[in-house]
Amino acid sequence: MLRRLLIQNFATIKNQTVDFEEGFTAITGETGAGKSIFIKAIKLILGEKCSKEFIRSGEDNLLVEAEFEFTNHTWIEKILAEIGIDFDSSLVIRRKVSKAGKNANFVNDCSVSLNVLLNLGKYLVDLNGQHSQQSLLQPSSHIDYYDDYLQITSEVEVFSNEYQRYLNIQKQLSDIQNSVADRARESDFLQFQINEIETANLSEDEINELNQEYKVLNNAEKLIATILPVTSWIEGVGSPIEQMSTAIYSIENLIEYDQRLEKITAEMKSGFIVLEEALQELAQYSGIVEANPVRLEEINQRLAQLDQLKRKYGATITEVLAFLELQKEKLANLSSSDENLRQLEKERNKLGRDLLEQAGHLSEIRQKNKAAFENQVLDHLKELGLEKSRFEIAFKSSDPENSNNLSRKGLDQVEFLITTNPGHPLKSLGKIASGGELSRILLSIKSIVRSDQSGQSLIFDEIDTGISGRISETVGIKLNQLGKSKQVICITHSPQVASIAASHHLVKKEMKQKEAVTRIFKLKQKERIQEIAQFLAGNEISSKTLSVAKEMLNNGGK
């Protein structure tokens, strides 16, 4: 409910704080006193744009601030959480409009956009007046009011959540199906890469071995030409081996003359053995090495193949093999996507069948209670002086066999149609020309609908236009009844309506220092009697008029 409204430098209002109570509050005041400023201030809180022309003369900016309190926190906490705003027990919306164009909007001291206020505002206040965009003028909202009347909002909310899950699955399926061609191309490309690498039969040591073999074959002639003369040392008369053997033998015979030669001879023998073995290995090596152009070309081609794979898939063979494993994993994931697609389709189809069954149940309840709702609205319209009205609920239901026809509310579209003139066709509520007439129609509907949003405030403007006497009293009684379940604020020109309200605020324009200033203040009991009496008799108030006014207040619509 709206607990407090602060208005500063707004048109003729300089600095005004208005406290509101639960139940039904009437706001009265002479024409031109500034009641419209109150409505405009509320609209600003609800996100309506504001012209700089509303800034009070001589001031640089205007400020409007509203504090709301709630008996049920759940829904408002959920809404605020979605936009990242903390909620304690109250909600404060503040708007500042500057001549310099530095406008600012805040919710609980958090800066927000006008769109946030617009979205939030529809849950806080239902503003009903000739120029207001009240929710009942939007055909899309009619099914919500009807479901509130039927007390199936909880069932519809469960259905809506399941329907959202259905939409999420549909989107997943659509994304997968739209990418079938892309996935096929990706799968083919992955398979090509895998085949190319696997066919190469790579090993991490192969490239080093090939490079070594390439060096040998590429220099085979040079190796052979250099090694062959050396191998001739092994055998033959006068060969280095023979000469060394002879030298060792000769020195060995001298040991008897000098024992120091024994060590030298031993070292010569050891070196001789090493040299002889090395020369034998060299001889064997020379027998192996030979020019092989065919093998050299094979190595060239293999190295070129490996270089190409490294250019495409990694700087080293190790990286190429790691890339191979990665592509295999990607291909496996693509294959599993096909299974995911089948599972999602299965889940979607089952959920669609369940939703159709639930939607059918909701449709049955709505159709079954259509006449009762229509008759109750007509009863209220009759009490409000619109006894010649016709009111109907127009149903548009989709094919109950096709889950593609589902919406968040089921299979039904609901619109309230009315005509207040006999012989005229039924029209949408938004096409009712008279503001007062429209307000009474909305009051009739809201009188039989008990919205779950107990924190929402109802504000009526011009509801008593064109009515008086008994009808005005009936309007007041119905507003008072509404006020027992939620906050109701009504700007009225009717003494009957004002006298029934639980509290009464007066809007008054005064001259202060040659400047018009609008004040809004709560009336005490004596002040209310005076205000009601002035409604009845104008400025010529008699004791009899005061007595009648007092009686009206005491009766309070009884």
Protein described:
With 558 residues, the protein is α/β, with parallel strands linked by helices. Among the domains are: 1-130 and 458-523, Rossmann fold (3-Layer(aba) Sandwich), CATH 3.40.50.300; 187-313, no CATH class. Helix content is 54%, strand content 17%. The chain has 18 helices and 15 strands. It has a 6-stranded antiparallel sheet, covered by helices on one side. α7 packs antiparallel against α11 (293-313), α9 (240-252) packs antiparallel against α10 and α11 runs parallel beside α12 (317-368).
CATH superfamily of the domain at 1-130 and 458-523: P-loop containing nucleotide triphosphate hydrolases
State the helicity in percent bands. Answer: 40-55%
CATH hierarchy: architecture of the domain at 1-130 and 458-523: 3-Layer(aba) Sandwich
Gap between N and C termini, in Å?
26 Å
Q: Kindly report the average pLDDT value.
A: 86
**Silhouette:** elongated
Oligomer: single chain
| CATH fold call of the domain at 1-130 and 458-523 | Rossmann fold
The count of β-strands is 15
Main beta sheet: strand number and arrangement? 6 strands, antiparallel
The class by helix and strand makeup works out as alpha/beta
Q: Compute the CA-based radius of gyration.
A: 48 Å
What is the top-level CATH class of the domain at 1-130 and 458-523? Alpha Beta
pLDDT under 50 segments (min length 5)?
none
Record the strand order, biggest sheet: 2-1-4-5-6-7
Helix count, per DSSP?
18
